[in-house]
Amino acid sequence: MAEYHFVSRWRIQAPIERVWEEIFHAERWPSWWKYVDRVDELERGAADGVGRRQHLLFRTRLPYKVGFEVRATRVQPPSTLEADATGELEGTGRWMLTPDDGGTLVRYNWDVRTTRWWMNLLAPVARPAFRWNHDELMREGGREPCSSAGSKAATAGRRGGTAAAGASRKVACSGCHDGVDRAGMATATFTSMTLMISGVAGAFTLGDRQWLSLQRPARPRHRVRRAGHRPLVRRGLALLIMGDSGFSIPCILSGCLVLQP
User: Residue 52 maps to which CATH number?
Assistant: First the structure.
């Protein structure tokens, strides 16, 4: 399995208690984090939150979704939240919050392994694209809690006085990196195009008796199954067009690589 270590940093101009509430209650994420598709609670856990299990489903900038379960293992409000992940991603995530000049610094460490076979297969060449994809997801998340927590803090400030409200309206965010990682974006775009082109090419070439004008040997040990690969490729292309690449990419690759003795 391919392993990754990510570090994301946000700066949110809101009190640490308010930011903690937004991060701790993951069921609220879909309302302010556009890449979070849904959050389902599987187990409530203890009163302090330890042992709580949830299933998270994320959309990404690349055409696939990622779903996994998280189980809270350490809860120390309002500074530390740690959880173990299982499923399509396996590893440990740790949120760390510290007050900073009236605002809050948020650091997220994500040590994770991928379990989907096609992600592990492509990892040697697509790792920069996967890293860029994660950074874009986290960068977007760093903007939204600023608006959510900042607007709530501003409302509280207006109730307490005009000066406090003015200070709370100032929102500052910083994602994983300053600026856009254009090299990663280019790699991600190239990876997506390669996957689509390879699927189309496989649909039109693998049914022939020749593969790139190379004749098959007289007694081949393996041969391409003519009748079996086309439905997989066509189904994969159809799913890709509909945006469900979580199944389309495996279908395309499976259809392109189906062999039988």
Answer: 3.30.530.20
In angstroms, the first-to-last Cα distance of the chain is 27
Residue 192: inside a domain, yes or no?
no
Q: Which helix (H) or strand (E) holds 92?
A: strand 89-100
User: In what side-by-side order are the strands of the sheet with 89-100?
Assistant: 3-12, 103-114, 89-100, 80-87, 65-76, 53-59, 36-43
Domain containing 225 equals 198-260
Neighbours of 53 (CB within 10 A): 17
Q: Say whether both 203 and 126 belong to one domain.
A: no
- Six-digit token string for 62: 């690349």
In three-state secondary structure terms, 143 is helix
Phi-psi region of 49 (alpha: psi -120 to 50; beta: other; left: phi over 0): left
The pLDDT tens digits for 111-126 are 999 999 999 999 999 9
Nearest-angstrom CA–CA distance, 30 and 86: 20
Query: Which range, 141-145, 149-153, 249-253, has the best average confidence (pLDDT)?
Result: 141-145
Tokens, residue 116: 């989907």
Q: What is the pTM of this model?
A: 0.65
Q: How far is CA 25 from the centre of its chain?
A: 19
**Residue 70 contacts residue 95 (beta carbons within 8 Å):** no
CA angle, residues 53, 58, 62, in degrees to nearest 5:
155
